[in-house]
Amino acid sequence: MKRMRENIVINTIVFKELIDAGIRQWQTFELVKSLGVSKIEIRREWIVDFPGEIKQMVLEAEKQKIQLLYSVPVDLFSKKRFDRSNVLSCLDEAERMQMKMVKFTIGDFDASNVEEIEALKASLQKRNMVVTVENDQTLLSGKVTVLKEFLDCCKEYEIPIYCTYDIGNWCWVNENPVSNTSQLGEYVKYIHLKDVIYENDEPVARALDQGQLDWRAILKMLPQNVPLGIEYPCGPKPVEVLKGAIERIVDPN
User: Fold this and answer.
1) What is the pLDDT of residues 135-173, one digit of tens each?
2) 66 C-beta neighbours (distance < 10 Å), count
3) I want to staple 234 with a disulfide (CB 3.0 to 4.6 A). Which of 14, 45, 144, 197 is the partner?
4) How far are the Cα atoms of 46, 109, 142, 186 from residue 85, in angstroms, in the given order?
5) What are phi and psi of 45, to 5 degrees?
6) Which residues of 194-216 are buried (b: 16+ CB within 10 A; e: fewer)?
7) Could you report the per-residue pLDDT of 89-148, keeping only the tens digit for each?
8) pTM for the full model?
């Protein structure tokens, strides 16, 4: 089943070696555009100078005609309470960068605490963006039961939060990325792609077709017309690795 190139997103973790060497995320935009991709997911933890880099990212995104998404390693809930200050700061940053999608993790959520759920709902009023939560690599926020309970709660309270389905992260919590598609499929608005191998019984992210996941089968079970993020380090020659990944996604047969 072919996927549309315009749905492909490059998460800046693909450039990890360049970032570690001192390149800023906005300096990768031209590389991404050269691959025929026009969506980039920025990693908040890699922003060093927020005022300066936010300004540069807006300017470079406009120049390259790039659409930005935001990966935010911030829990919505801490000690069973909505982390209003941190979440609002991140949403404000996303708005300044004209982002249409922001990804959080759930954190320490208590479905019985209606007051905190209502506070979360209020924080998203008049926000012109898609907000998602990801199955991360922790037992707190990465288990399918946690994701489903939270997303079902959002549906009940009419809170516009959806799911980023990371097909590889399930391996970190010993769950099945295939069977979990049926649990969360209705909520999925974004998919993170990576393959996984096991080294000393521990999962390690790898490029597509370099691991043990049947990622093509998983994709067939998930919504079709959603963004697909390439999200794994691509080594010292990321452009070459990315070209192969993009071709596999566009024509996976």
Assistant:
1) 999 999 999 999 999 999 999 999 999 999 999 999 999
2) 19
3) 14
4) 20, 16, 23, 30
5) -65, -10
6) bbbeeeeeebebbbbeebebebe
7) 999 999 999 999 999 999 999 999 999 999 999 999 989 999 999 999 999 999 999 999
8) 0.96
